[in-house]
Each structure stands twice: as structure tokens, then as C-alpha cells.
Design brief:
- There is one protein chain.
- The chain is α+β, with helices and mostly antiparallel strands.
- Helix content is about 40%, strand content about 25%.
- The protein is built from eight helices and five strands; from the N terminus they run H-H-H-H-H-H-E-E-E-E-E-H-H.
- The protein has a five-stranded antiparallel sheet.
- A hairpin with a 2-residue loop joins strand 2 and strand 3.
- Helix 1 packs antiparallel against helix 2 and helix 1 runs antiparallel to helix 4.
- It starts with 6 loop residues before the first helix and ends with a helix.
């Protein structure tokens, strides 16, 4: 079995499956439910950039989801098709943040990395949030000051609602005399953010916003 879909594609397909589950929990009209299921299948298949026959067979099981147990079983069948984010080593971390000493990051097993578009963690001691993501054949990393808001808001990465904080970067201009600060509100919990992120373009746009000079 080939790992052919990304984490964000995985989460988008699961969202279609939840649409069918919610439909069956809230509607009784068989015609409506059939239409919801067919639309969900079509959107899920369109999401996959590399749609194999085996993956298509699994996606089409969305139409048979009636209860939470069906959804959970579908998720387990879909998971083997997901390509995990590559593991970030301590050596990678030192290359990405050479001036930061004694930096620690969370470690995730391959099954959990299948849910990650990016690796993000908070360092309360420095009031920073670190973000690492795959780019090309390697990794890119950045950090910014992170100020939890203490309340729920809309995250500019996943577009979901949860506890957020202001992520703020500082870019030095040529000559080193002036700086530009850029930022936006994002989830405090990066794992929860990843699990809501079903469009990689939103993450890429956030990175462009906070890193452009």
C-alpha cells in the first residue's frame, strides 16, 4: 500500500466523512442522505492528488457511514494511505536554529506524524512558539514571540476556532538597522491546529505573511 496523501488531504477527506455522519444523525430523508454521501465521495476523491484504485475503494466507503463506529473504522482504513511528516532530528534542529541553546522539541511516532503538516511547540521560558515544516528535500524553521490571548478565536492557519495567541516575527532589513514585525493569531495547541488543517495553502499563506520583509 502506497502512502499517497498528505496530512491536510487526510483531514479534508475525514471532514467529508464527518459530513456524512452528521447527515445521518440529523436527517431521515434517504434522498437527501444519498446526495450528501455522493457529494462527500466526489469531494474526497477530488482532494487526493494521487488517487489509486485502492484509495478510491476506501473513500467510497464514506457512503456507508451511519454511526460513530463506522467513522472510526473508516479513519483507520484511510490512515495507511497517509504520508507522514519526516522526523525532525536533533541535528536538524541545530541547523535550523543554530543560535538557540538547549532547545527541546516534542517527538512523535510515525502514526502521529501522519496528522502533521507542520511541527509546532511552545517554549514558555522564552515566550516563543517554534514552527518546523518540510520544504523541498529538507526542513524550514522559524520562531516568533507568542502571547496567548486566554480566549477562543479563529486561527489563521487552520481557520478553526480554539484557544489562540498572537504569533509575532521580527524581520531585519538590509543593513540591520530597521525591523519589520508581522504576525497573526494562531492556535495555542499546534497539535489541535494540525488536526483541523485541511488545506495546506492556508499554512503556506500564513508563513508568507509572517516572513516577508
Amino acid at each position: 500500500m502506497h502512502e499517497t496523501i498528505t496530512s491536510s488531504e487526510f483531514h479534508l477527506i475525514l471532514r467529508q466523512a464527518r459530513n456524512v455522519l452528521n447527515g445521518n444523525m440529523n436527517a431521515n430523508d434517504e434522498g437527501v442522505l444519498a446526495a450528501v454521501s455522493q457529494m462527500a465521495i466526489e469531494r474526497a476523491e477530488h482532494t487526493a492528488t494521487d488517487l489509486s484504485g485502492a484509495l478510491s475503494d476506501v473513500i467510497r466507503q464514506i457512503g456507508s457511514i451511519r454511526e460513530r463506529e463506522d467513522y472510526d473504522r473508516f479513519r483507520e482504513q484511510l490512515l495507511p494511505f497517509v504520508r507522514p511528516m519526516a522526523e525532525v532530528t536533533d541535528g536538524d534542529l541545530k541547523r535550523l536554529f543554530p543560535k538557540v541553546k538547549n532547545l527541546r522539541m516534542p517527538k512523535f511516532a510515525a502514526e502521529v506524524r501522519k496528522e502533521l503538516t507542520y511541527l509546532g511547540w511552545n517554549d514558555p521560558g522564552s515566550n516563543r512558539k517554534y514552527i518546523v515544516f518540510e520544504k523541498g528535500q529538507g526542513f524550514t524553521g522559524l520562531y516568533g514571540q507568542f502571547r496567548p490571548s486566554g480566549k477562543k478565536g479563529v486561527c489563521s492557519i487552520c481557520n478553526g476556532i480554539g484557544e489562540t495567541g498572537l504569533f509575532l516575527t521580527e524581520t531585519r532589513h538590509a543593513g540591520g538597522e530597521t525591523y519589520t514585525k508581522r504576525g497573526n493569531y494562531i492556535c495555542t495547541d499546534s497539535m489541535a491546529c494540525n488536526r483541523r488543517l485541511d488545506d495546506r495553502k492556508r499554512f503556506d499563506e500564513f508563513i508568507r505573511t509572517v516572513t516577508k520583509s
